[in-house]
Automatic annotation (TrEMBL):
Keyword tags: Cell membrane, Ion transport, Membrane, Sodium, Sodium transport, Transmembrane, Transmembrane helix, Transport
Domain Cation/H+ exchanger transmembrane: 14-402
PANTHER family noted in UniProt: SODIUM/HYDROGEN EXCHANGER, SODIUM_HYDROGEN EXCHANGER 7
Subcellular location: Cell membrane
Name the UniProt record assigns to this protein: Sodium/proton antiporter, CPA1 family
GO annotation, biological process: regulation of intracellular pH; sodium ion import across plasma membrane
Membrane topology (UniProt): Multi-pass membrane protein
């Protein structure tokens, strides 16, 4: 088969695997990992390679941009304590535990390489966990904690990774020599991300067609990452700051005819990147496996299994320890959580600790190691084994575990959407109030009926209208959209509620422009 034929076949296979995963309600990366492993042992499979330096930019930058764009700053602030400990303490403990273990098993492995491996396998990929959590009734806070962790733990892990790779290259450098560079990367990345966002928003305002807009979005994301890395900043932190800054302003400046196709393309791109990451890593495993003799294969497999066990147990140990400490502090009156934040329970701690599946960031970081990096073959095999093992062991058992714990579900987004929809309908009515035309009166009757049902029917939608190209309806929709933007800005509604209503008003706006 030619390269093109292989690519088409693998993409179609990935679609079938993801459909099967949705049918049996498991994370689709689980099946992609299994498929990547099987691909490594196909005798006549393709031999594709990618320049290691491109791996992080190609695979991580768009995925992180997509996740950061939807992040709710309000939810991050409400859960800052647990999220920050998962991002800093859990990642640090996992990196240290893996580094100590692997250096003990392989004393000849440099400490820098051992730490790099620890940083590679440290950050969980919450996309796999949330794929399950969104299908079951769970406390909303758990979902927000995992989403916040997935956004920020990549930054902390890859910052350690970057220092370790640099130390391995220099060999005799001291860790304190990297401290100024780390501080500069932290502060400079945040400032650069905001600056890049202002430039991007200025540019996007001058583009009026969807294809050009989408191309510029992707090109801008890759450019931000590349420039940040070239000037010594953290690409991860820069992209996070860039995406969050854009997300606060872009919705009010972007028309529905550009936003709707853009969201669809980004969802597709993230899926394709996951497929390519698992395929490429699987293809790299075959030559590595073939050039190792049997004793070394066994040694590497045992090391990978040990690392997988340490990765899982370290997260469980920290999350459960955190829960015990917080319950003790609350019981003794030392710590008083905000009213909106519930005290951690044993059941919620079990779920959070078990949501430690690794994914695309681990694969991309392992692949991005230079070809001459010490023990690169071992690191690649171990990274894939940790991803595969965590997705299979935890991914396939997470849903039964959640069902067994009988956690009490809550979803404040439903109530927020109902309240915000009522405010939006009232704003639409106020916008067309006083218009004596028959069309305005018909529209007022329509919105009044919707307003009556808004509070009691959170699953209701926004009227799309029956008249094509209706300027009056577009005015009303614009007023309603401004009202939900104000509610989001004042943090009376979450980003989840905002995006749900944004989608409804986008459909209504497109209908009115037909």
């Amino acid at each position: 088969m030619t390269t093109f034929e292989w690519l088409i076949a693998l993409l179609l296979a990935a679609v079938l695997l993801s459909g099967l995963a949705r049918h049996i309600k498991v994370p689709y990366p689980t099946f992609l990992a299994i498929g990547g492993m099987l691909l490594a042992f196909v005798p006549s499979g393709p031999s594709w390679t990618l320049e290691p330096g491109l791996a992080l930019a190609l695979f991580v930058a768009p995925v992180l941009m997509d996740a950061a764009y939807d992040t709710s700053l309000r939810d991050l602030r409400d859960n800052w304590l647990l999220v920050s400990t998962l991002v800093c303490v859990a990642v640090g403990l996992t990196t240290s535990a893996v580094a100590v273990l692997i250096h003990w098993l392989l004393p000849d492995m440099p400490w820098a390489a051992a730490i790099a491996l620890g940083a590679i396998v440290a950050p969980p990929d919450a996309a796999a966990a949330t794929a399950i959590l969104r299908q079951v009734n769970l406390p909303y806070r758990i979902l927000k904690i995992l989403e916040g962790e997935s956004l920020l733990n990549d930054a902390s892990a890859l910052l350690i990774y970057r220092v370790a790779v640099g130390a391995a290259a220099v060999q005799h450098s001291r860790w304190n020599e990297f401290a100024p560079a780390i501080l500069l990367a932290l502060a400079g990345s945040l400032a650069a991300g905001y600056l890049f966002a202002r430039i991007s928003l200025w540019t996007m305002r001058r583009i009026s067609d969807a294809p050009s807009s989408i191309i510029v979005q992707f090109a801008g994301t890759f450019t931000v990452w590349i420039v940040a890395e070239r000037i010594g900043l953290s690409g991860i932190l820069t992209i996070v700051a860039y995406a969050i800054a854009i997300a606060r302003t872009a919705p009010e400046r972007t028309p529905a005819r550009l936003r709707v196709p853009s969201y669809a393309v980004w969802d597709t791109a993230v899926f394709v990147l996951n497929v390519l990451a698992f395929m490429l890593i699987g293809l790299q495993l075959r030559p590595i496996w073939q050039r190792l003799d049997d004793p070394v294969r066994l040694k590497y497999c045992l090391a990978a299994a040990a690392v997988l066990g340490v990765v899982i147990l370290t997260r469980i140990g920290w999350v459960m320890t955190y829960g015990v400490m917080m319950r003790l502090l609350i019981a003794r009156g030392i710590y008083h959580p905000r009213r909106s934040v519930a005290a951690p329970t044993v059941a919620s701690g079990i779920v959070v600790s078990w949501c430690g599946m690794r994914g695309i960031v681990t694969l991309a970081a392992a692949y991005a190691l230079p070809e001459v990096f010490p023990y690169r073959d071992l690191i690649l095999l171990t990274a894939f084994a940790v991803v595969l093992g965590s997705l299979v062991i935890q991914g396939l058992t997470l849903r039964p575990l959640i069902s067994a714990l009988h956690l009490k579900a809550d979803n404040p987004v439903i109530a927020e959407v109902a309240r915000a929809r009522a405010v939006a309908f009232q704003a639409a009515l106020d916008e067309i109030d006083g218009d004596p035309s028959e069309a305005a009166e018909i529209l007022r009757l329509e919105y009044r009926a919707l307003l009556l049902h808004a509070a009691s029917d959170p699953d209701g939608g926004v009227a799309t209208g029956e008249l094509p190209a209706d300027p009056l309806r577009r005015r009303a929709i614009a007023a309603a959209r401004r009202s939900i933007l104000d509610l989001r800005q004042s943090e009376e509604i979450s980003d989840d509620a905002f995006h749900q209503l944004e989608e409804e008003f986008d459909r209504a706006e497109l209908s009115a422009q037909a």
